[in-house]
Automatic annotation (TrEMBL):
Keyword set, alphabetical order: DNA-binding, Transcription, Transcription regulation
PROSITE patterns referenced in this protein's UniProt entry, alphabetically: HTH_TETR_1, HTH_TETR_2
UniProt xrefs under SUPFAM superfamilies: Homeodomain-like, Tetracyclin repressor-like, C-terminal domain
Domain HTH tetR-type, residue spans: 11-71
DNA-binding annotation, residue ranges on this chain: 34-53
MF terms in GO: DNA binding
Protein's name in the database: TetR family transcriptional regulator
Length: 199
């Protein structure tokens, strides 16, 4: 049995409270999630939050990194594990339909929706997520171009256009999920989007 010393912060599981912060940011977005809301969700006081994570922006960046390794990892995994870009992206979109509508966590994608309405003071956070999204597009383009170069996709296939189209599809699916679309709705979007690929 441990005894808490007066004035000493209560011990907590850092990963556990970070997961709660992640959910708060995911549900409400960076700007609308206050420090008071974070500490309530995390079950810790402001001094503990600042001591463990720094400020709100630093906490958000760490939450984004956790999201990329956990809930958002399905996209990179699909690209890495499937033999072609087409199969990888088809799998990614279908898994997005499941992930974005899961009742186990907030709907949609944190990277897409968490910083859509930021004040000038939070422009760096908005840019951080924009950089993450653009890096994802670049990964898609490289994967598609590799298949063009190998002959798996027809010569002249516009890898950039397909990558941006895929990203736009994911972004639309995320917003539709937040607006209440079902998994079946998004599965249909995923299937339809693959019709844009060259034969």
């Amino acid at each position: 049995m441990s005894v808490t010393t007066r004035g000493r912060p209560r011990a907590f599981d850092r990963g556990e409270v970070l997961a709660k912060a992640l959910e708060a940011f995911w549900e409400h977005g960076f700007e609308a999630t206050s420090v008071a809301g974070l500490t309530k969700a995390m079950g810790i006081g402001p001094p503990s939050l600042y001591a463990a994570f720094g400020d709100k922006k630093a906490l958000f960046r760490e939450a984004v990194a956790v999201y990329q390794r956990t809930h958002g990892a399905f996209a990179a995994r699909a690209l890495a594990e499937e033999p072609t870009a087409r199969q990888g992206i088809a799998r990614m979109l279908h898994e997005a339909a499941t992930q974005y509508t899961s009742p186990a966590h907030p709907r949609g994608c944190l990277i897409i929706s968490a910083a859509v309405n930021c004040t000038p003071d939070s422009a760096d956070i908005e840019q951080h997520l924009r950089d993450e999204r653009n890096a994802n597009v670049a990964d898609l383009e490289r994967r598609i171009q590799s298949d063009v170069d190998s002959g798996t996709l027809p010569a002249g296939t516009n890898a950039r256009a397909l990558a941006v189209f895929t990203a736009a599809t994911l972004q639309g699916m995320s917003q539709q999920a937040r607006d209440g679309a079902s998994r079946e709705d998004l599965e249909a979007v995923a299937a339809s989007s693959m019709l844009a690929w060259p034969g």
